Amino acid sequence: MTRPGLTFIGFLLAPTLSLIIGCERGSSSSEQLANSPVSMTFRDATSASGLEMTTRSGALPSSQILEVKGGGLALIDYDGDGDRDLLVPNGATLEDPEAGPGARLFRNDGGLRFVDVTSDSGLSHRRWSFGVAVGDVDGDGHEDVFIACFGPDVLLRNRGDGTFEDISGSSGVDGGGWSTSAAFADVDADGDLDLFVTRYLDFDPESPPPPAQFKGMAVLNGPRGLEPLSDVFYENRGGGVFHRHEQGEPLGGLEPSYGLNVAILDFTGDGKPDILVGNDSMANHLYRNETEGGVLAFDEIGLASGLAHDLNGYTQATMGIAIGDVNADGRPDVFTSNFSSDSNTMHVSAGDGIYDDRTRQYGLSLVSRPYLGWASAFYDFDHDGDEDLLVLNGHVYPQATRASMDSEYEQPALLFRNDDGRFTRDRSVGVFEAAHRDRSAVFDDLDGDGDIDVVVSELNGPLRLLENLSPRSGRNWVTIELVDEDGATANRSAVGALLHLRSGGWRASRWVAGGGPFQSNWSPLVHAGLPVGTDQVEVEVVWPDGRRSEHRLDRGLRATIRRTSEGVRVESREAD
Amino acid sequence: MKVKIKDACFEQANRVISRLWSPKGAFSRVCGVWVHHPGVRFVFGPLHPSGDVFLRRHCLIACLIFLVPFGVLLTGCTDAPPPTSDPQTDSAGTRSEPLVEVVDDERIEVGRKLLRAGRVQEADVLFETVVRQRPELARANFYRGLVLQKRKFHAGALDRYQAAADSNQAFPERATLPYFMAWSAYHAGEPDRARIEIDRFLADPDVVPRADASFLSGLIHFDADRLSEAEADFRRAIERSQASGDSAEMRDMTRAWVRHADVLSRLDRDREALVSIDRALELDPDLTESWFRKYTILTRIGDEQEAASARTRWEELRDQGVPSGSTGDLP
């Protein structure tokens, strides 16, 4: 037979042989699976979920700065059934900031099915709302809600019977002005949750500022040129009664700033929770916690830490904050999303509270320039053992087009896959490629199947529930919830805890932190995808009081690590 | 390169397979509840998402080899379809046809004079008018792009430059197009496009090498974390600016010294980075970026006294209202 003939037969036989050999070889080899890219897959599961709601934040198109931040979302296990429900505080309009369409509460019934229980819960909150924080302020075992508002802030106490009562006045947290984000954490280490509230600027809807100029166009005014407000620290003095600290002691003589977001965790590695405030068009603040013996004290070290500015020493417009450990060194690294024609920023911890801008190193610089970023989060969406990154985007100026501002008004999200320490944009996930006016988002395993789902809040748009359907075959994960019932603390969800996970040469760290992606809260659920072939993972928990416990967890299980006065135990259950 | 292309193809094939087997995919619809049956997995072995990746790769390659001759055979039976791409340009955008001379619009010279006089807004109006009236005129598109770039409308500039590049017209500035396109693409957040254009410009034997072209090449390499290439580019930019003997160009390349320091700092060569920063400060003592970097590097290496001094100078310059770059153009 001629040589071409043999080649032709070879071509003909090759697929058949491959198929046969493939069948003989059977299922996956872990080494090859570990090296193979896994596509992340999400689907929009909103329509059948019961999360039918369009949020309100002024008019569309926006004409004033009050209208452009959108409203946050809160994950809260309000009924104590072990899964997280969704609270949407919602906004209002310039015509009547006190009476918007109202907050909504959706009970998670499992399987990504939610039921609107607003009326049963007694929620009647209608003030224009922005950020939201969740924590058990009075130590009664039920999660309460703080809502940062335009106007007096609101604290809703969870009665434990599925209803809430407004205790803003009696608790002392009903400060006015324009609050944007909030975070609970036990900052003074006395066992209860304190509260930090970022505030933005002085705005009067009845006398709004005239338009400003941007790139030759008349656009809504601010923040520059408008009066910034100072942030507020509320010290919990027990039973959910707070003492208000503003500019001055213990925060120091800070200038008011355009505060937009806050994260509370141990940024400096000294075991105490520090407070990072993301400011718009101003230097970010990092309050190093120097509290000793119950005497509150902070030192603002934003500039010295490197977190205040980008590499060039320029201020940015910090909106979203994501915390991860991108180099697996056990220290928290900080990603912040910023304005268009600027870059998002990846600050990597160099230890001792010093951070380097390593945005370029991680491939996150130029790619973000056309986008204006908001809620951001690191999660291992595809369960390959490293954390990916999602940034939601949308411009503030309705006039924004590619031609006029190098940036569109409605924008796709930026989904990055972590490829061996460098982030690569993944454009294969359709639900993140559609353009929206996104602002806030919450991340959690809402259906209990072991992967991270996302709920997104779009400015004056419908909520979107995005179900994670990334292939799981051969991929593994663990989820961990900490429950602290030690008796010495009211910080039941162990805000401030640090978890180190390891298996063989693989290392990862996670923080149970105060704050959130943007005007929303981080889930207390700790999630980790595991390297292929991992059957067990060792977990070291550094509890908020500094005590440690070590555990060995099987893959593919949802674990609760419960600390009581009798010790620490692990309860595990299968994925739903 | 070959490996990268193969990996990309395989990644795409993996995605297709995952979609086919997803709950709403074609296989799942056809197989229904049997989709997870061991028999189905046995038959489809390597084509199942949970199947052996190594074998799937080879199975796909084999299928491709099998299909190609058939494809050739089939397409050979019909008339060849017309090429879909622009016949005048190859895949890299390089022209394969000779350029043609066109009659210039005399308003372009007026616009050039306005630009030289710094009257950018007026030049913009003029070039916009010319482009609107004569959209086919490549040189008008080029200058409209230049004006937009000066006004920091990088995406719009890129569109005009592309229109000029797509034409078959000769004009005096044509050889510089890739250079300007690269800068606009860089600022518009399109690093891959910027890379292609600046490489094309630097490889052109007919253009005089420019210091800031090497600088941009360094920036793009730095963004891709290719540090040795970035360092070489920044060095080249500095050398070219020095060789030019032009004090303005040398001062302009102060930023190359700063970025050179950034690369060295990334490589944990902080002492050398400080030397580069000092060279930058010799050229431009008021560049705030330099003082900020000096402060951060000195802080990192523990020289608190010098760091404090650098910080003080940086704060002085900042408070004097030296533009703060990234967010400085916000309202």
Order of helices and strands of chain B: HHHHHHHHHHHHHHHHH
How far is the first residue's CA from the last residue's CA of chain B? Answer: 45 Å
Percent range for β-strand residues of chain A? 35-45%
Determine the oligomeric state from the structure. heterodimer
Structural class of chain A: mainly beta
Contiguous runs where pLDDT drops below 50 for at least 5 residues of chain A: 1-12, 14-29
How does the major sheet of chain B shape up? Answer: none
Q: Compute the gyration radius of chain B: what is it?
A: 27 Å
Cα shape of chain A: globular
Classify the beta-strand content of chain B into a percent band.
under 5%
Number of helices of chain A: 7
Q: How many E-type strands of chain A?
A: 40
Average pLDDT for all residues of chain B = 79
Write the layout of secondary structure elements.
The complex is a heterodimer of chains A (576) and B (331).
Chain A: H1 3-25, H2 30-35, E1 42-44, E2 74-76, E3 85-88, E4 104-108, E5 114-116, H3 118-121, E6 129-135, E7 144-149, E8 154-158, E9 164-166, H4 168-171, E10 179-185, E11 194-199, E12 212-214, E13 217-219, E14 232-236, E15 242-245, E16 259-265, E17 274-282, E18 285-289, E19 298-300, H5 302-305, E20 316-317, E21 321-324, E22 333-336, E23 345-351, E24 354-357, E25 373-379, E26 388-393, H6 402-405, E27 414-419, E28 422-425, H7 430-433, E29 438-444, E30 453-458, E31 464-468, E32 476-485, E33 498-503, E34 506-511, E35 514-515, E36 526-530, E37 536-542, E38 548-554, E39 557-564, E40 567-574
Parallel strand pairs in A: 32-39
Antiparallel strand pairs in A: 1-31, 2-3, 3-4, 4-5, 6-7, 7-8, 8-9, 10-11, 11-14, 12-13, 14-15, 16-17, 16-35, 17-18, 17-20, 18-19, 21-22, 22-23, 23-24, 25-26, 26-27, 27-28, 29-30, 30-31, 32-36, 33-34, 33-37, 37-38, 39-40
Chain B: H1 2-21, H2 26-31, H3 38-44, H4 53-77, H5 106-116, H6 120-133, H7 138-150, H8 154-166, H9 177-187, H10 191-203, H11 211-223, H12 227-244, H13 247-252, H14 254-266, H15 270-283, H16 288-301, H17 304-319
Helix pairs in contact in B: 5-6, 5-7, 6-7, 7-8, 8-9, 9-10, 10-11, 11-12, 12-14, 14-15, 14-16, 15-16, 16-17
